[in-house]
């Protein structure tokens, strides 16, 4: 499952987003129900990822430049922690020990966090914003493969929250104050997307027929990368 860590290249390749006319119709969300992992594996991976995002935001709070930033990021971290706790509650409802369910995913996600940590506070914030946005959206695509009641609860839980708004506000303020920051963050954002896609792919149960699998997966990742591009554009960064 975690072979993606071995395959990571030193310099990321920037994915090419095909026009939406070549993918899926606008407004249509393609799911990957038959490629979804079993519920315990799904919940374990999502729970540990949300915990990792919370830990990243905690580090960002500790290195925030002022009290206003600390306060805003503290509220954002609280919302991410609530996501983690909500997923953990689903595991407990299945009589599964959350720590046991999360453990198989910890090494890979910890390594991913190191790769996307960034060199300073702004790169750290952008890493959290882009990777969490991409993977939360991806994990929502897998919900169709879960029991319907669980899927409905998790869809609400994983939708964008205030944490994204707080991070965007801090990033915009930093970019406005330092014109050199924009180009550096744009490069960092382009580097992040490759590793983030690999994490997403590690969650999929593929058939083994590469051509068929890629035909199924490609439209979904086209949409996910398009959403990544919109996040970058919203910050005035070139994806």
Question: What topology emerges from the helices and strands here?
Answer:
Elements (H helix, E strand, L loop, with lengths): L3 H4 L31 H24 L4 H27 L4 H5 L3 H10 L5 H21 L6 H11 L3 H16 L1 H24 L7 H25 L5
Describe this structure in words.
The chain has a single domain (32-234), classed as Ferritin, CATH 1.20.1260. 70% of the residues lie in helices and 0% in strands. Helix 2 (39-62) packs parallel to helix 5 (106-115) and helix 6 runs parallel beside helix 9 (179-202). The chain contains 10 helices and no strands. The two termini are 28 Å apart. The chain is globular. The protein is mostly helical.
| Rough outline | globular
CATH class: Mainly Alpha
Query: In which range does the helix fraction lie?
Result: 55-70%
Spatial gap, N to C terminus: 28 Å
Number of strands: 0
What's the helix count?
10
Which architecture name does CATH use? Answer: Up-down Bundle
**What is the count of structural domains?**
1
Largest sheet: none
Instruction: Give the SSE string.
Output: HHHHHHHHHH
Strand content: under 5%
CATH superfamily: Ferritin, core subunit, four-helix bundle
Under CATH, the topology can be stated as Ferritin
**Strand pairing plus helix content: what structural class?**
mainly alpha
Overall average pLDDT: 85
Uncertain ranges: 1-28
Question: How many whole angstroms does the radius of gyration measure?
Answer: 17 Å
């Amino acid at each position: 499952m975690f072979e993606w860590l071995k395959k990571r290249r030193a310099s990321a390749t920037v994915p090419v987003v095909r026009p939406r006319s070549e993918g899926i119709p606008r407004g249509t969300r393609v799911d990957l129900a038959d490629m979804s992992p079993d519920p315990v594996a799904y919940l374990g991976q999502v729970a540990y990822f949300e915990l990792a995002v919370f830990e990243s935001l905690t580090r960002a709070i500790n290195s925030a430049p002022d009290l206003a930033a600390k306060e805003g990021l503290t509220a954002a971290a609280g919302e991410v922690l609530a996501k983690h706790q909500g997923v953990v509650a689903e595991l407990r409802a299945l009589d599964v020990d959350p720590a046991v369910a999360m453990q198989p995913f910890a090494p890979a996600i910890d390594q991913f966090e190191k790769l996307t940590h960034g060199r300073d506070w702004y790169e750290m914030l952008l890493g959290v914003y882009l990777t969490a946005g991409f993977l939360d959206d991806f994990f929502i695509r897998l919900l169709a493969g879960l029991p319907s009641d669980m899927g409905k609860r998790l869809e609400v839980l994983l939708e964008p929250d205030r944490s994204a708004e707080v991070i965007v506000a801090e990033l915009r303020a930093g970019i406005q104050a330092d014109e050199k920051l924009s180009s550096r963050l744009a490069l960092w954002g382009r580097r992040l997307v490759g590793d983030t896609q690999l994490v997403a792919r590690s969650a999929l149960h593929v058939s083994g027929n590469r051509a068929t699998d890629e035909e199924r997966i490609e439209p979904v990742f086209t949409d996910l990368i398009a959403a990544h591009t919109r996040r970058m554009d919203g910050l005035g960064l070139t994806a």
